[in-house]
Amino acid sequence: MESPSPMTSSATITQRDQLMVEMKVAEIYHLFASLPHHAQTLMLELQRDNHVEFLTKGLKQLGPNYGVLDANRPWLCYWILHSIALLGDFIDCKLENDTVDFLNRCQLPHLATTYAAVNSLITLGGERALSSINREKLHGFLLRMKDPSGGFRTKIRRSSAIEVDLTWVLNRRTSYVKINVVVSDYSYMPKIAEAARVVWLFLLCSMSLADLSLHLVLRSWLGLYLCLPQLPTISFPCGEMDVRACYTAISVASVLDILDYELVQNVGNYILSCQTYEGGIAGEPGSEAHGGYTFCGLATMILINEVERLDLPSLLEWVVFRQGVECGFQGRINKLVDGCYSFWQGGACALMQRLHSVVVGQLHAKVKKTVENTDSIQTPNLSDLENVPGASSTGSGGMPITDSVLKLSDIGFSFIKEQIELDPLFHSIALQQYILLCSQVQDGGFRDKPGKQRDHYHTCYCLSGLSVSQHCWSKDVDCSPLPKAIFGPYSNLLERTHPLFNIVLDRYHEAHDFFSGQ
Amino acid sequence: MSSDEDERIPLPERPEWADVKPIPQDDGSNPVVPIAYKEEFRETMDYFRAVYASDERSPRSLGLTVEAIKLNPGNYTVWHFRRLVLEKLGSDLHDELDFVNSIAKSNSKNYQIWHHRRWVAERIGIEAASLELEFTKEIFSLDAKNYHAWSHRQWVLQALGGWENELDYCDELLEEDIFNNSAWNQRYFVVTRSPLLGGLESMREAEVKYVVKAILSNPGNESPWRYLRGLYKGDTHALIHNPEVSSVCLEVLKEKKNCVFPLSLLLDLLCYGLQPNEEFSNVVEALRPSNSGPPEVNLKKTICSVLETLDPLRSNYWIWRKNNLLPSSEV
C-alpha cells in the first residue's frame, strides 16, 4: 500500500474532506493572526446581543423550513432557553408564561422530548414552571419505557388488550361479518373462546347497526361479558432503544428526584455493552464510538453510581484524542470537526476531571494486573477493577457512600459539590478559539463549522461547550474563573452549567431545592 | 416548483376526504417556537390529526401518512400510526421497503426512518436480509460513515443473517478509504461476532498482519492503531508478548519521528510491563530534543515528555499521564 498524499488525486474521501476543512479553518486563524490587537479583541468578542436576538426571535417565530422540526418543538425550546440562560439573560414574563403553557400543552409520548421539556421548565425556573411537572406521572411513564433488557426505548405503544375488529365481507350472494379478535394479553384467552359463541348470537340481533357503531357496541359488550368496565389497555415500550434514550430517562428521573433502583436496574449492563474497543461509547452494542453517546453513557453511569464499571482510562484517551488541529472536537475517529461536540466531548472531559481517583485507580490496576499475570497467565477483566482502592468504596463524586444509605437522586447534587482534583485534560483555550472564531456567526447564533448555516441546536451546544471550557479550571463551583481561563475579553464569561444535566447551575439548584423539599 | 407540487390537489377538494373534518393544531392562544407552516403542511397535518383521533386504519389513512412523511420525515407519531395501519391492512411489506427507500435516500440521518425500516425488515424475516444489506450498501456509496445505516446493517446481520461476504465488504470499503473508521469498526464487529469465523483469538494473527500493513501505509491514520489495540482488548498480557506490536511502533518512529500514535502505544506497552530492549531505548532516546537536559531515568517518563512537546493540544493529558505513572518499585 502506497501512502497517498492528501494533495494528490489518490487521496481518499476522508482525506480530501478533512483537508478542505483544515484549509478553511487555517484561513480564519491566519486572518486573525494578521490583525492588529484591537481588531483581534473585537473578533474574539462573544456577540451577546446578536445571539440573544437570534434566540428570542426563534422563540417567537420560526420560518416554514422548520417544518421538519415540528415534532421537536420542546427541543427547540430547550436549545433556545438554555442558550439564553448561559448568556445570563432572561426572557420577559409573558413569554415565560407562554412557554410554560406551551410545554404543558405538548403531549409528550417520546422520551427525548420529555427530557427537553423538563430541562426547559427547570431552566425557566420559578414556582409556576416547576410545579407544573407531575413527577408521579413521569415516574410511571419512565417505568413503562423500560425494556425488559434494561435499556430504555423512546416511545410507548398503547394498545387495547383485546382488539375487536370487524370486517364486512361482501360476497356476491350474501354479506357476512368477519370478526377478528386480537388478544395481546393471553390471560383472557379462555374467556374469549367462550365469549365468541355469544358474540355470534349477539351479532344476529344487531345486523342493522352501522359498521362503526357495531364495532363500538361489540367492544363494550365484550368488556361487559368479561366483567371489565372498559377493555384494558396495555402499553409496552417501542421506539428505538439506545444510549441516548437511557440518558434522557435517567437524567430526567435524577433531576426530578424520582430515580430509584427499579428504574436503574440493568441500565449499567446495557451502557457497558456499548463501550467499544476504541474506548468511547456507541449508541448500540457493536456500533462505532461516538461523542454524543459517549457523553450520554458516561453521565448515565455516574448518575446510577456505576461509573467504575466502564474502562475509564481508555474512554479518557479516546475523548482527548478527538480534539484536532482545527482546535475543536470531532465526534468520531477520522470524521470532521463539529462545534456541537464542544459540549459532548468537552463535557465528557469535564466529567472525567471529577472522576480522577477512579481513573487513576483503574490505570494502576491495569498495570499491576498485567505485571502479575506475566507469570500466571490470566486475562484481567473489568470486574477485578472494582476492587481497586478508591473505586468501589467511593461514590461517583469521590465521596464515601455506602450502598445502603445511598440515595440515587443525590448523586447529581453531590457530584458537583466536591472540589475538582484535576486540571482539564483537553485544551480548553484552543476549544474556545474554535467556538469563537469558527462556529460563532457574528450576526448571532453558532454553526457546525465554517461554511455551514447557524441553527439553534449548534447554538445551544457551542455555548454549552464554551461554558464548560471557561469554567473547567476553577476547582470550586462557587469560584469565578481566572482571566487566563477565558479566551478573549473576560466579558465573554458565560454562566456555569451542570455537567451531568446541562442545566445552568443556579437553575439546577433552585429545582433541586424545590423537588427535594417536596 | 416541481411538477409534483403543481399537481397536488388540496385535501378539502378531494371527494374521498369530504366526510372528514380536519382537526387544527391546538397550540393555545400564545404558542412559543411557532412554525410558519406552509399551507400544504398545515392542511395535511390537520387531516392527519383527524384520522389519528378516530383511529381510522384505512387505505386512505395510509396514503395520507405518505404525504405527511414526505413533508416531515421526523414526525414519529405519523410513522407510528403508519405501522398500525400497515398491520391492520396487512399491506405488502416489500412495497413498504420501496417506500422507505424513496424517503431514506434524501433523509438518511433521520432516526425514525431507520427505526421504521427495522420494524418492516423484522416482519419480513430472513428473506429481507439480502435486500437490507444491499440497501445499506447503496447508502454507504453516498455516505460511507452513516451511523444509522451501520447500526441497521449490524442489526440485519445479527437478526437475519447474511454474514458470508461481510469481511470482504469491509476489505472493499477499506481499500477505497483506509481512513473510514466506520469500516474498521465493522471489521471488528465481524471478527468478534460473526458465527462463521472463529472469534477474536483465532482471527488475531491474521488481523494483526492486516492492520500492520495498514499502519505502515499511513502511520498518521488513527483508525488502525486503535484497531490494533482492540485486537488485544482485555488481554494486555498477549499485547506485550507479541513482538510485532512493538516492532511496528519502532519501525514507524524511525521514519516518522513526530508520530504520536506509536509513541502512545509504546507508553502503554511499558506501563503494562514490557521490558524494553536496546533498540527500543535507542529509538526513544533519539526523539528527545537535544537541548532538553539530562535524560530522564525512566523510559516511560521520557515518552511522556516527548509527547508533551510533540502533541501540544494534548499536553495536559501527557503531563497527567507522566504524573500518574506507577513508581517502578510498586510494580
Automatic annotation (TrEMBL), chain A:
Q: Which UniProt keywords apply?
A: Metal-binding, Prenyltransferase, Repeat, Transferase, Zinc
Q: Which CDD domains match?
A: FTase
Q: Which reaction does it catalyse?
A: L-cysteinyl-[protein] + (2E,6E)-farnesyl diphosphate = S-(2E,6E)-farnesyl-L-cysteinyl-[protein] + diphosphate
What broad taxonomic lineage does this protein's source fall under?
Eukaryota, Viridiplantae, Streptophyta, Embryophyta, Tracheophyta
> Which source organism?
Stephania japonica
Q: How does it assemble?
A: Heterodimer of FTA and FTB.
One of its GO biological process terms is: prenylation
Q: How is the cofactor bound?
A: Binds 1 zinc ion per subunit.
Q: What is its EC number?
A: 2.5.1.58
**GO MF, one example:** protein farnesyltransferase activity
Q: Transmembrane region positions?
A: none
Prenyltransferase alpha-alpha toroid domain location: 46-156, 224-503
Task: Give the CC-aspect GO terms.
Answer: protein farnesyltransferase complex
So which cofactors does this thing need?
A: Zn(2+)
- Extract the Pfam families matched here: Prenyltrans
What family does the database annotate? Answer: Belongs to the protein prenyltransferase subunit beta family.
* InterPro entries per UniProt: FTB, PGGT1B-like, Prenyltrans, Terpenoid_cyclase/PrenylTrfase
Stated role? Catalyzes the transfer of a farnesyl moiety from farnesyl diphosphate to a cysteine at the fourth position from the C-terminus of several proteins. The beta subunit is responsible for peptide-binding.
The entry's protein name is: Protein farnesyltransferase subunit beta
Automatic annotation (TrEMBL), chain B:
Q: Where is this region: Disordered?
A: 1-29
What are the GO cellular component annotations?
CAAX-protein geranylgeranyltransferase complex; protein farnesyltransferase complex
Q: Does the keyword Transferase apply?
A: yes
Tell me a Gene Ontology molecular-function term this record carries: CAAX-protein geranylgeranyltransferase activity
Tell me yes or no: is Transferase among this UniProt entry's keywords: yes
Q: What residue spans carry the Basic and acidic residues bias annotation?
A: 8-19
Query: According to its UniProt record, which cofactors does this protein need?
Result: Mg(2+)
Question: Which Enzyme Commission number(s) are on file for it?
Answer: 2.5.1.58, 2.5.1.59
Please give the InterPro entries that the UniProt record associates with this protein: Prenyl_trans_a
Which UniProt keyword terms apply here?
A: Magnesium, Prenyltransferase, Repeat, Transferase
Superkingdom classification of source: Eukaryota
Q: What does this protein do?
A: Essential subunit of both the farnesyltransferase and the geranylgeranyltransferase complex. Contributes to the transfer of a farnesyl or geranylgeranyl moiety from farnesyl or geranylgeranyl diphosphate to a cysteine at the fourth position from the C-terminus of several proteins having the C-terminal sequence Cys-aliphatic-aliphatic-X.
Instruction: Please give the family membership noted in the entry.
Output: Belongs to the protein prenyltransferase subunit alpha family.
List the protein's name. Answer: Protein farnesyltransferase/geranylgeranyltransferase type-1 subunit alpha
User: Which organism encodes this protein?
Assistant: Stephania japonica
